[in-house]
Amino acid sequence: MRYGFSGTIYTEGSRAFVGVPFNMWEETGIKGNIPCRVMISGFSFECKLIPRGNGRYLIPVTKKALSALETEKEYEIEMEPIETLSRINHDSPYSKEHPIRKIDCIETIPVQAGFCGHCCVAMLAGVPLSDAVALMGKGSASWSKILEALDYYGIPYASKAVYTRGGSYRLPPCCIVNNDNGFILWYKGSFCGVTDVDPKKTISFIEILLV
Question: Are 175 and 206 in contact (CB under 8 A)?
Fold first, then answer.
């Protein structure tokens, strides 16, 4: 079902949002992350609504749409819940030429059970873990989902993963490691957010290109 309403774009830090003026739980019967297709003044994009509790949600406005729109101006908005986003990196405001940031440091996020892949992406992109979860969805991440998220943020990586096959290996300066079927970020000589990693349990890794 498609919903129409009037809304104003506002900014918080470097991000822009529109508040959904009704209770999504009551209107749609859907809870949790809600993928939607949004139309604002002729600009269409897909996103996951950001929950604010008790059925209240925010629409995150993409930078591409925001560049052609104005904040503090009221727009007619159409919004349609969809089953899933076309791809994680659909309508990304970033690219390899214009990534979310240059990786010259890592702010460590303690790795949480069930969110190890999300933590790797969040640390590389320099965003809160909640942003990575909103982008990638809940549940264990796969290599494909992690790489799609890196593509979304414009973070470059090697063309293929290296499989250690139980042999000796040398990690590059920055990479995501699949160790004992969990994902860990390696950055300049140490693992981020975890301790007691057994190198013998490393299955594969993919280099993150520091450019």
Answer: yes
DSSP 82-103: -SS-S-TTTT-S--SSS-S---
Taking residue 62's Cβ as centre, other Cβ atoms within 10 Å add up to: 19
Residue 179 CA to residue 184 CA, distance in Å, equals 7
The pair phi, psi for residue 33, each rounded to 5°, is: -70, 130
Contact 63, 11 (CB under 8 A): no
User: 179-211: string of b/e by CB count within 10 Å (b at 16+)?
Assistant: beebbbbbbeeebbbbeebeeeebebbbbbeee
Q: Which of 8-12, 138-142, 173-177, 197-201 has the highest mean pLDDT?
A: 173-177
Q: Give the integer Cα–Cα distance in Å for 134 and 139.
A: 11
Nearest to 34 by CA among 3, 13, 10: 3
**pTM as predicted:** 0.61
CA atoms 195, 201, 206, 210: torsion sign: positive
Cα–Cα distance, 180 to 200 (Å, whole number)? 9
Cβ atoms of 17 and 60 within 8 Å: the answer is yes
**Which amino acid would we find at residue 124?**
L
Cβ count near 127 (within 10 Å): 19
The helix (H) or strand (E) run that includes residue 206 is strand 202-207
Over residues 55-94, the pLDDT tens digits come to: 999 999 888 788 888 888 899 999 988 877 666 666 688 8
